[in-house]
Specification:
Keywords: Hydrolase, Membrane, Metalloprotease, Protease, Transmembrane, Transmembrane helix, Zinc. By secondary structure, this protein is α+β, with helices and mostly antiparallel strands. It is built from 10 helices and 12 strands. The strands form 5 sheets. Strands 6-5-7-8 form a 4-stranded antiparallel β-sheet. It has a two-stranded antiparallel ribbon with strand order 1-2. It has a two-stranded antiparallel sheet with strand order 3-12. Strand 5 and strand 6 form a beta hairpin. It is elongated, with a radius of gyration of 28 Å.
Length: 416
């Protein structure tokens, strides 16, 4: 039941975000005096509506977005009533049209920033000092977390009955113990522990000294076998090595909370990282299509593949089911930021395409004026329709592929 509640809550949050996106267009267009005739949440048949002034507001039957109808977005629009010629959008200065078209994305960015700031002062944001690379992790104290087993191959997977039990568990070590020496070799950090274990062989007996709750202890165990690449070459060939069956418990906290003022700087830093990650994700989209197809046809789902609204809602349901509300809100932040950036891409029919054309017209008029030629006027959107249809076709196919993969082989963050 909590899973279903999470799915519904996340889907509702997305619908509200998209509705606010369209409200951004609506409010800025009205503020500049443009004529707005419709503002609806959803698509399809009208369920309920009312008219206030010259604008009809309402709800449609399919809750998958919304739309805002601004009269005369392009010179080719033929829905201009007599007397409204001066209020059509394309006649307004380019900076006003830019604000109106960018208002949707700005709304998504605002939702993301506000949510990040709230998280910064409440649940906390990811700690920028938390070790994220092997080199950083090896400098951490050798505080251990026991594994359930030792996987014999170089892979991350669930344990099976055929896997060897953790030698550390057999030695009665516990989560949170700090290893201080192995076979008399001092262990100052996690890297020392790995180096010392690599000097031993599977089946060797390891004499271990450790600290637990401030008290020193001694134990011994027979090391298991696994396969790993060399420590100095993570992409090198794997070979059999000794394994203790433990992982690292970083001493650095995973999250940091901030005061109301400090949260602004933390929000800015986190947003910068989010922007870089979003740009990288957009660059990887074309190469992720084969991975999505593999997931759809029965292969393993790559966690780095794109997700649709369906997949995001399912992850939101998992987060609520596991009481992981921070994950829920981080998904909300990431999705809003991604939608905001995507809508600014210079492609029709998204908002960024209209902005790009407006500034292209402005630049072209400036150039023609400087060289003494007549202003060529507005771009003919009808000539761009084949390109627009191609973008819609490709985007639609990609969306359907992503939705299908999210239904057939969804990404999961928690064991269910």
């Amino acid at each position: 039941m909590s899973y279903l509640l999470g799915v519904v809550l996340f889907a509702l949050a997305i619908l509200i975000s998209v509705s606010l996106h369209e409200a951004g267009h609506l409010l800025t267009a009205k503020a500049f005096g443009m004529k707005v005739t419709k503002y609806f949440v959803g698509f399809g048949p009208t369920i309920w509506s009312f008219k206030r002034g010259e604008t009809e507001y309402g709800l449609k039957g399919i809750p998958l977005g919304g739309f805002c109808k601004i009269v005369g977005m392009t010179p080719q629009d033929d829905d201009v009533e007599p007397g409204d010629e001066s209020r059509v959008m394309w006649r307004y200065p380019v900076w006003k049209r830019t604000i109106v078209m960018a208002a949707g994305s700005i709304t998504h960015f605002a939702l993301a920033l506000i949510t990040i700031w709230i998280l910064a002062v409440s649940a906390g944001l990811p700690n920028p000092d938390f070790p994220t690379t092997d080199a950083q992790a090896r400098q951490e104290p050798a505080v251990i977390q026991l594994s359930d087993c030792v996987v014999p191959e170089n892979a991350v997977r669930a344990c099976t009955p055929a896997d060897a039990a953790s030698p550390a568990a057999a030695a009665q070590l516990r989560d949170g113990d700090r290893i201080t020496s192995i076979n008399g070799t001092p262990i100052n950090n996690y890297g020392d522990m790995l180096t010392t274990l690599r000097s031993l062989k599977p089946g060797d007996t390891a004499q271990i000294q450790y600290v637990r709750d401030g008290q020193q202890g001694n134990t011994s165990t027979v090391l298991a076998k696994t396969e790993r690449p060399p420590l100095d070459n993570p992409t090198g060939a794997v070979a059999p090595v000794a394994a203790l069956g433990v992982g690292l418990v970083p001493s650095t906290p995973t999250r940091v909370t901030y005061g109301p003022v400090g949260a602004f700087g933390a929000t800015a830093n986190f947003t910068g990282d989010l922007a870089v990650g979003t740009a990288q994700a957009l660059q990887r989209l074309p190469q992720k299509v084969p991975a999505l197809w593999t997931a759809l046809t029965g292969g393993e789902r790559d966690i780095d593949t794109p997700i649709s609204v369906v997949g995001a809602s399912r992850l939101g349901g998992e987060a609520v089911e596991n009481n992981a509300w921070l994950v829920f809100f981080m998904l909300f932040v990431s999705l809003n930021f991604f939608i905001g950036v995507f809508n600014l891409l210079p492609l029709l029919p998204v908002d960024g395409g209209h902005i790009a054309i407006a500034w292209f017209e402005r630049a072209r008029s400036w150039v023609y004026a400087r060289i003494g030629r007549a202003d060529p006027g507005r771009v003919d959107y009808l000539k761009l329709m084949p390109f627009t249809y191609a973008v819609i076709l490709i985007g639609g196919a990609f969306t359907l592929l992503t939705i299908a993969a999210d239904v057939v082989n969804p990404i999961t963050l928690f064991s269910r």
